[in-house]
Design brief:
The protein is α/β, with parallel strands linked by helices. The protein has one domain (19-233): Decaprenyl diphosphate synthase-like (Undecaprenyl pyrophosphate synthetase), CATH 3.40.1180.10. It is built from 7 helices and 6 strands. Strand 3 (106-110), helix 4 and strand 4 form a beta-alpha-beta unit. The radius of gyration is 18 Å and the shape is globular. The two termini are 34 Å apart.
Length: 253
């Protein structure tokens, strides 16, 4: 999952390039079935594809890349598929963290760790800790993540902190999310042709632009990344306003 050597340089952004891209990596199983392969082969291929997408995202000037790797609902899949996905993630962390750290990538995790095997949870915590000082692209991995659960957890944190009911507003909830310092996604991409959000960043995505493609995740290569960015660049973000009122994002404290 390595980038080119020059990727340690500061990120630069072109006009029209989204600062934060979030991807629902869908279609691994379908991709495998079309190849006559077991579903886990598709998940392995999808994991390998992260290398290409990460490099292209960096080269395009994207600062934050969030990948929806495993949802709270995915626990309902067959046991062998769930255990296989967890095993794949564990091996990827072991193989790639050192290389990503050298390339100045900061790894972030959003979700919960309590249901994961202890060794995997420890590996995730270590990956976050080792790379926390890096200043390049932020790679945010949503693993055992659910948007509704995140909002519930945010409200619980506020209550536990003694926040008065009339002080719980949008800004307070935003500040209590898993990665409160990460800007809301400008662009959300979903592969494999589905048209739903699937409990992904449902608070943060209130005014995100959406891009859906029929391409399954293992085939979503650098060309497809650039196609999505180009499509985003043609859109006018209004945030509920008329075009004449400007299209600046509302401030979130």
């Amino acid at each position: 999952m390595t980038l080119e050597a020059e990727s340690t340089a500061p990120l630069t952004r072109d006009f029209g390039v989204p600062r934060h891209v979030a991807i629902i990596m869908d279609g691994n199983g379908r991709w495998a079935e079309r190849q006559g392969l077991p579903r886990l082969a598709g998940h392995r291929a999808g994991t390998e594809n992260i290398r290409r997408v990460l490099k292209e995202s960096h080269d395009a000037g994207i600062e934050y890349l969030t990948l929806y790797a495993f949802s709270t609902e995915n626990w309902g899949r067959p046991d062998d598929e769930v255990s296989g996905i967890i095993e794949i993630l564990g091996s990827v962390i072991g193989e790639e963290v050192v290389a990503l750290h050298k390339q100045n990538v900061r790894i972030r995790h959003l979700g919960v760790l309590g249901r994961l095997p202890a060794d995997l949870a420890k590996a995730i915590v270590q990956a976050v800790e080792v790379t926390k000082g890096n200043t390049g692209l932020n790679l945010c991995i949503a693993f055992d993540y659910g948007g509704r659960a995140e909002i519930v957890d945010a409200v619980r944190r506020l209550i536990a902190a003694g926040t008065a009911p009339d002080e719980i507003d949008e800004a307070a909830i935003s500040a209590s999310l898993y990665l409160a310092d990460v800007p809301e996604p400008d662009l959300i991409i979903r592969t494999a042709g589905e048209q739903r959000i699937s409990n992904f960043l449902i608070w943060q995505a209130a005014y995100s632009e959406y891009y859906s493609t029929d391409i399954c995740w293992p085939d979503f290569d650098a060309t497809e990344v650039q196609r999505a960015i180009d499509e985003y660049g043609q859109r006018q973000r209004r945030f509920g306003r008329l075009p004449t009122e400007g299209a600046q994002a509302p401030e979130v404290s």
